[in-house]
Amino acid sequence: MAAGRRRAAHAVQRVTATALGPYQSAVLRIGFAGTWLLFLLREVPHRRELYGPDGPWSWDMARQLIARNHAFTALMWSDSAVWFEAVFAVAVLSSALLMLGWRTRTMSVIFMLGVLSLQNRSIFVGDGGDNVVHLMAIYLVLTRCGRVWSLDARRAATTARAAAAPVRDRVGPVLWGVMAVPLLVGTVTDGVTVEVWLLVLCWGMWAAQGLWWLANRRGPTGEARALLDVLANILHNGALLVIMAEVCLIYATAGWYKIQGSRWQDGTALYYPLKLDYFSPWPGLSDLLAANGIVVLLLTYGTVAVQVAFPFALLNRRVKNVLLVVMMLEHLGIAVLLGLPFFSLAMITADAVFLPTGFLLWLGGRVATRPRRPVPKSGGAPAPRVPVPSSGEQ
Asked: Are 351 and 334 in contact (CB under 8 A)?
């Protein structure tokens, strides 16, 4: 009994005192924000047809649908082309800033609102990866995904190393005040119906940001700040657990639904998308693969086996890591063969939540490593390195 209580106390201490998986959550932040940013940049020439006033899914049609499903989209606040361009620009900017990790708490909320605004405006636009980004954008709001590999982490480290008193934060309160304006407009605008949970989430995050700033102002080591840290860690760890469960659910349902399909049962399911012109960016490669019946059979059965087995593979670390590699290679194949790069990138990012911390640290070290200038053969002193200025931006 005593040993059990100690283990339970240790588990509670770990969940409340630590934001688990900081590198995994950073990869999620960078991956999903980067995926959405690349998609928006690619569709800049077609943005008005996809989500704006020139699309076949008109503003009035979207408003009628939203009146029934109560989905959130800021694009329903006005049918003005100027308003659409502003929302689109904010979505692009927030994606870039979240990927860089600048003011992560605020940017994660704006990123979520941008994703919901564009996707809910035209729900028939997407390839499946948009659903993953849609869900993860909501979950990321609850995570502390800027603890590492972010401008926020770099600024925090610079402040901690400084001998002088901490610099007073001026940008944070400004962003906090600016965020209240669209939230207030969206809440009281006539004719806009929003789900209660979204209003509670947005206003709750807005209030939490103010409390966080106030606690830091009174004392970074005070009891109020410690309590907020505990609550933030609990939300982060809970959200990370939900993300992992979501990924398992995606693969489990996909695999079990495939098992019920006759084309998956006879091993020919992969053949048919390879013969669709819409999903054949490389027709020669698709035809070559489709002509080999054994390869089609193995890939079809292998896809089902990997998807069904993955949730159970989490019980064994080595098997899990092997299946992660296989699934990521599978998504790379989908990106090349079927021309679905953003779907594949979204799924690879979701898979990354299960990557080992040691591998992510190694990968981060490889990315951060810069080639050094060689030492002269004469034995002289090496050329001085130019110091990289630390980021002091707020």
From this structure: no
Q: Is the dihedral of CA 198, 204, 207, 213 positive or negative?
A: negative
Question: Containing H/E element for 267?
Answer: none
DSSP 164: S
Q: How many Cα neighbours within 13 Å face the side chain of 265?
A: 6
DSSP single-letter state for residue 277: G
Structural tokens at position 240:
């990370």
The full DSSP string for 38-97 is HHHHHTGGGHHHHTSTTSSS-HHHHHHHHHHH----GGGS---HHHHHHHHHHHHHHHHH
Residue 198: Cβ within 10 Å count: 17
Three-state DSSP class for residue 248 = helix
Picking from 81, 76, 84, 72, the residue whose alpha carbon sits closest to that of residue 59 is 76
- Residue 45's CB is within 10 A of a number of other CB atoms, namely 7
Residue 261 makes CB contacts below 8 A (sequence gap 6+) with 269
- Please answer whether residues 66 and 120 qualify as being in contact, where contact means their C-beta atoms are separated by less than 8 angstroms: yes
Is the Cβ–Cβ distance between 270 and 300 less than 8 Å? yes
Per-residue pLDDT of the chain (394 residues; tens, 9 = 90+): 777 777 777 778 888 889 999 999 999 999 999 999 999 999 999 999 999 989 899 999 998 988 888 888 889 888 899 999 999 999 999 999 999 999 998 899 899 999 999 999 998 888 888 999 999 999 999 999 999 999 999 988 887 776 555 566 778 788 888 888 877 877 776 445 566 777 787 888 888 888 888 887 777 777 888 888 899 999 999 999 999 999 999 999 999 999 999 999 999 999 999 998 888 889 999 999 999 999 999 999 999 999 999 999 999 999 999 999 999 999 999 999 999 999 999 999 999 999 999 999 998 888 876 555 554 444 444 444 433 333 334 4
- Please give the angle made by the CA atoms of 196, 204 and 234, to the nearest 5 degrees: 110
Could you please report the per-residue DSSP string of 263-297? HHHTT-TTHHHHT-GGG-SSHHHHHHHHT-HHHHH
How many C-beta atoms surround the C-beta of residue 145 within 10 A? 32
For residue 202, what are its two tokens?
A: 């947005």
Q: How many CB atoms lie within 10 A of CB 14?
A: 12
Dihedral sign for Cα 215, 217, 221, 223, please: negative
Structure-token pair, residue 226? 């410690």
